[in-house]
Specification:
The structure is a homodimer. By secondary structure, chain A is α/β, with parallel strands linked by helices. Chain A folds into two domains: 127 residues, 2-Layer Sandwich (Nucleotidyltransferase, domain 5); 168 residues, Nucleotidyltransferase, domain 5, CATH 3.30.420. In chain A, 35% of the residues lie in helices and 20% in strands. Chain A contains eight helices and twelve strands. In chain A, the strands form three sheets. In chain A, strands 3-2-1-4-7 form a five-stranded mixed beta sheet, sandwiched between helices. Chain A is globular, with a radius of gyration of 20 Å. Chains A and B meet through helix 6 of A and helix 6 of B.
């Protein structure tokens, strides 16, 4: 007896640095099935494509489209282009490769922060409220961003818009992985929090006993200490939020969004981050924007957000 | 005999700090008639409105719509809101006031930099080429900006998007008229050039004899000296272009435009500004944007640009 295929779904694929999640999302935005696997065995992209194909075709759930969120995923070209943390180097024509196995359905890719923004628009704060102009900020190892203007993601002329994490906040500042100095993400991210901890330790601005290895402070340790009201840890969060505030105030000068939505590991710090951030943000805003732009934490469930966002790419494309 | 009214035109109004220009623009983008008057006698907005009305109704040219470019002009509200350099304080409901005299025709307002961007899109570089994603930078007393994404001006949720001049490039930097520190326009504008001159003079980094009053250096004097290859003047331009380059590289991170177009007094410095600017800009760009974004000088005739841009607002509205 053949499996029943009475449910139509979009497959959302979240490609991360170490593992990939495939999720089947129904029209209500529920992830009805999800599988997760390590990228390690898939050194060759062809093997990865075959794995995806096999998982989709072997499922009893009908797949009407495939949306993908990946580091350096480009909506215009359908490629992953030079993603430093993935096993495949150069330009990977992911959409075309998948399309050869699924010629009849829409397949789109975008970067992970844009996918998160799309998820927020469709399933998060945007689900019940008007959310046409907002900026999604993903605070993880780095700082990613997805920008919505008039209900659409900003891709720019080449698909690479929305790199707020690489806006320079201090031209003489910290060296960034991109080779330049003073990028926002070197301050406002889990990594930034750790560099700040190290700097504060070296300058003896703090002298905590809660770092397991003071040569390699962990963001998590700062968070735990801040939750216990440790003044040093709170100072690190204060410093981080002040720089993030300036970066966000600069972003507001560009697109004047209604909301800025925070997502990701560091956003889970909640009030420890948000409270000083909101204060510094209002101070940093140009007069005409004051008391107009809300900063809030994402409504998306962290576990499902990436897959939902990737699937939302297709639902949006289908509804336009 | 009644005057012949066989030509249909859009009236473009450019409201500046000291005077206003009214221009009649035909469908080919030619300013067929233009009048210019001082704002001094129009301390009351009602008198200003009556003046506009009288000029438009007394002309034999048919007016099909009125587009206005003004400092702090807001496309969404139709108002001029708290423009510091105009004679009328608070919120001026300009479009509504004019509409009461011209109830049948479209009337729109936007700020001067957006109007310039609209003019460029319709009558400048955008006239014969695709120009969907670009940023217009007006370099005058301050630094204004108009942002196009996918062929539309970015207004933001409140009509106030596009204040790149107030993106902070140095949180500890120069005090700005907006009350904050380190705004881009305090460095990259005619005023910025003059402050830099003063700083360089005070630090004895330059010792020129070509400032008429070294306590009040003029941008024009720096320009003339730079044209004559004076090393000090060229250093001032070099410094200015380096900071502008960082600001523009940050803007690229946001919307990834195809072009950045410079307009206004300082842009007329031409190669003296553009050459170092392009060099520093390429250096400052994030890798994925390198060699993709052109910086060019506006194609618009300075004298007509503001009026053309204002009129273009209406032509665009009519063609959508």
């Amino acid at each position: 007896m053949k499996p029943m295929k009475n449910n139509k779904h979009i497959v959302g694929i979240d490609i991360g640095g170490s593992h990939t999640t495939i999720g089947w999302v129904n029209e209500e935005g529920v992830v009805v099935k999800k599988i997760d696997f390590s990228l390690k065995p898939y050194v060759h992209i062809d093997d990865f494509i075959l794995k995806i194909r096999q998982e989709i075709t072997s499922s009893p759930l009908i797949c009407q489209g495939i949306g993908i969120g990946a580091p350096n995923g480009n909506y215009f070209t359908g490629m992953i282009e030079f993603a430093p943390n993935l096993p495949w180097s150069g330009k990977i024509n992911l959409c075309e490769l998948l399309q050869s196995y699924f010629p009849e359905i829409p397949i789109y890719i975008t970067n992970d922060a844009n996918a998160a923004a799309m998820g927020e628009y469709r399933y998060g704060w945007g689900k019940e409220n008007t959310l046409e102009d907002f900026i999604m900020i993903t605070l993880g190892t780095g700082l990613g961003s997805g920008i919505f203007i008039k209900g659409e993601i900003v891709y720019g002329h080449d698909g690479f818009a929305g790199e707020i994490g690489h806006m320079i906040v201090d031209p003489m500042g910290r060296l960034c992985g991109c080779g330049r100095r003073g990028c926002l993400e070197r301050y406002a991210s889990a990594t930034g929090l750790e560099i700040t901890s190290l700097e504060f330790l070296n300058k003896k601005r703090i002298s905590p006993d809660w770092f397991e290895n003071p040569d390699q402070p962990k963001a998590k340790e700062v968070y735990v200490a801040a939750m216990a009201n440790d003044p040093g840890a709170l100072e690190i969060f204060d410093y981080t939020s002040k720089i993030l505030a300036t970066g966000l105030a600069n972003a507001v000068c560009f697109s004047s969004p209604k909301k800025i939505i925070l997502f990701g590991g560091l956003a889970k710090a909640g009030e420890i981050l948000i409270q000083p951030l909101q204060k510094y943000f209002e101070e940093a805003l140009l007069q005409i924007y004051k008391n107009k732009v809300e900063i809030m934490v994402s409504k998306l469930e962290e576990n499902d957000a990436a897959v939902l966002g990737a699937a939302a790419l297709i639902y949006e494309a289908m509804s336009n």
